[in-house]
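User: Could you walk me through two proteins back to back? I'd like the raw sequence and the structure tokens for each, with a short line separating them so I can tell where one ends and the next begins.

Assistant: Of course. Protein one, sequence then structure:
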Amino acid sequence: MASETFFNSPFDDGTNCKLELYKLYLKEWLPVFFSSPKPIWKNIGIYDFFAGQGKDSNGAWGSPLITVSEINKNLDYIKNNDLNVKLCFNELDAGLFDLLQKNVLPETRAGFYNTEFYNQDFKKCFYSQLESMRSSANFIFLDQKGIKQITEDIFAELINLKQTDFIFFISSSFIRRFGESEEFRQYLHIRKEDVSNKDYFHIHRLVLEYYRSLIPTNKRYFLAPFSIKKDSNIYGLIFGSNHIYGLEKFLKSCWKIDSQRGEANFDIDREKISTEAPSLFPEFNKPSKRKLFEDDFTSKVLSGELDTNYKAYLFTLENGFLPKDANTELRKLEKNKKIILNCKLGSQKVHNISVGSIQLI
């Protein structure tokens, strides 16, 4: 779909879901760097490299205006903590670029932060900003239209930035439609047999595993997906952070949208579970993803593999669940006299938790 057509109509449900998740995470991300009494990072950058014109035909805000609105709620922190904040918006389409400036500039607050606009090809703009990003804490939003921009070299640069979280959008269902084409294989090296063996609803999980395979084995890095269904097509977001706190905050945002699995805006496992009209049989009200997690988590605790609260929380987050889900299973095991908890349980900020042991009985 052409950019002009996209913005000349109201955002659809899938786009609204994407923007809601972006907004939720931005609300989680900003306080980490803005409201700390003694900020570690004085330079903070937010980069939107496929910004569009800023709003749809009905005036609903796109990512640039969402960003500016959330930043404007933190002006006192910016001033009091003497923060150097930069907002960077890039849009290649000349017509949309003009509208982007027209729509966004009146909402900005000069004197509190710098707002920069660029009308460049994505890679040119990205690499021109890379040195600046290396010396700041960053949140990067990459709302590409397709699959070709987040290549292996771009991904490698993203995961090597120090204090940087990113979210990028990808048209996952293109893999099913064009995966055998030579043009497609220039960008994503996903095997034909892997695509053929994957449930269409789960295609974005395959994309996630592809990007995970690009992370060096000696590097600790966190990725998480969120799948979005638009009509018959599957799209998705991939989140990345080098810090467990970033992963925790992203998953918290995901679970606010998808209370069943924290992973999609549709019934990704085709289980037809209804919270409004639950089944008479409790086992049918629990998504298979949760059941698999609970079984695997319990098995690893009882085998001694997850022998501290921190290991338990790390396993939980890497499997797409929240600390409170780990706590539920640990308390069950404690009640059934399977373990002794020589540790405190927490529901957030697990990176700061006092590490204690989980003792088998």
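----
Protein two, same layout:
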Amino acid sequence: MVVPQTKIRYSVEEYLSLERAAEERHEYLDGEIYEMAGESLAHGDICINLAREISTQLRGTPCRALSKDIKVRTGVLPSPRRMMKGLFSYPDVLVVCGEPQFHDAYRDILLNPILIIEVLSDSTEAYDRGEKFMRYQQLESLVEYALVSQNLPFISLFARRENGWFYSAVNDLSASVHLASIDCRLDLTDVYDRITFPAEESPMTDEMES
């Protein structure tokens, strides 16, 4: 997410009318429209890897991975009186089980994801961990929320339980993550296939260069 396009505040209906006619993707947050920044090669590769691994494991089940061009609506149902509350976002990977529920007849805004995965970038990490996660928790259907780093092998997983959200993480390429909501296992070697991480400079190297 980047800064709002303008200082104008839009209703949900105005946003959807503009967005469905736009070539670029934009997210909506409480009346403001944000143009989505382009993704890096690593970001795109990780998204493809995640979608491939999850889709393959979901064959023959009632669950499916959906395109990241599908929006998710978080918040109360908009009223016809210029409603300006809520979040409309484009998760990097999302999964729905059973019959998808949509915002309207366009069938491009999902209401009942069971799993959402965001691939982090420097410009969006704080938002994905903070405001966006807070909004996603309003989705009654959501059981798991995963954050995948693109700068190092690291996956954070938030899982909904009866008494709140629980956190776990893995940071080793030899490790795997179990997504209990859809009974899938992600090996980090598969998630980070084709990814080259920035080399860490040793203190000795720094001293030799100074």
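The radius of gyration is 18 Å.

Let me know if you want the two compared in more detail.
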